[in-house]
């Protein structure tokens, strides 16, 4: 199995069996996101306790990349400090948006590296980053709906 097949398998797995999916009754931060180009919609709910994302859940619908990104993001940030979550947002965003002639390697992203291929398809970058922009809005307690446009 080559690397692309592994990445595709991971994305499909998280799309079919999303992690941390559902509502969070104890949420104290919320944000909604929308990707009008693809039709992806996302609602993210966080419980932040003493500067740490103690729990989170998300609901939404959209393409496989959008759903897998929300699922993988939720696994990646649970238990992290708000500061570390914002740093991870910045790293992920840079990872999927940097120019194609820059090597896509970022060994510290772990499973999030499955999104390296979206750089070749700028329209798909919006799908992969919707959950992350929504996370940033929730953490910063922004009230407007996040849009990738």
Could you walk me through the main structural features you see in this protein, from its secondary elements to its overall organization?
The chain has 149 residues and is α+β, with helices and mostly antiparallel strands. It has a single domain, classed as Sufe protein. Chain: A (Alpha-Beta Complex), CATH 3.90.1010.10. A four-stranded mixed beta sheet has the order 3-2-1-4, covered by helices on one side. Strand 2 and strand 3 form a beta hairpin. The chain starts with a helix and ends with a strand. The mean pLDDT is 90.
Q: Tally the helices: what do you get?
A: 4
What is the level 1 CATH name? Alpha Beta
Give the strand tally. Answer: 4
Largest sheet: 4 strands, mixed
Residues in helix, %: 40-55%
- In whole angstroms, the N-to-C terminal distance is 36 Å
Q: How does CATH name the architecture? A: Alpha-Beta Complex
Report the β-strand fraction as a percent range.
15-25%
Cα radius of gyration in angstroms: 14 Å
Mean pLDDT: 90
Strands side by side in the biggest sheet: 3-2-1-4
Class per helix and strand makeup? alpha+beta
CATH topology: Sufe protein. Chain: A
Listing every helix as H and every strand as E from the N terminus to the C terminus, the arrangement reads: HEEEHHHE
Quaternary structure: single chain
């Amino acid at each position: 199995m080559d690397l692309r097949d592994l990445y595709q398998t991971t994305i499909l797995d998280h799309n079919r069996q999303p992690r941390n999916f559902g509502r969070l009754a104890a949420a104290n931060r919320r944000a909604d996101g929308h990707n009008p180009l693809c039709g992806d919609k996302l609602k993210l709910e966080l419980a932040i306790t003493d500067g740490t994302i103690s729990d989170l859940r998300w609901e939404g619908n959209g393409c496989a990349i959008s759903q897998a990104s929300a699922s993988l993001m939720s696994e990646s940030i649970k238990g992290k400090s708000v500061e570390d979550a914002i740093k991870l947002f910045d790293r992920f965003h840079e990872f999927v948006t940097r120019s194609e002639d820059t090597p896509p390697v970022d060994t510290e992203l772990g499973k999030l590296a499955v999104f390296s291929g979206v750089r070749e398809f700028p329209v798909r970058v919006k799908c992969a980053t919707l959950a992350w922009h929504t996370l940033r809005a929730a953490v910063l307690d922004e009230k407007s709906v996040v849009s990738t446009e």
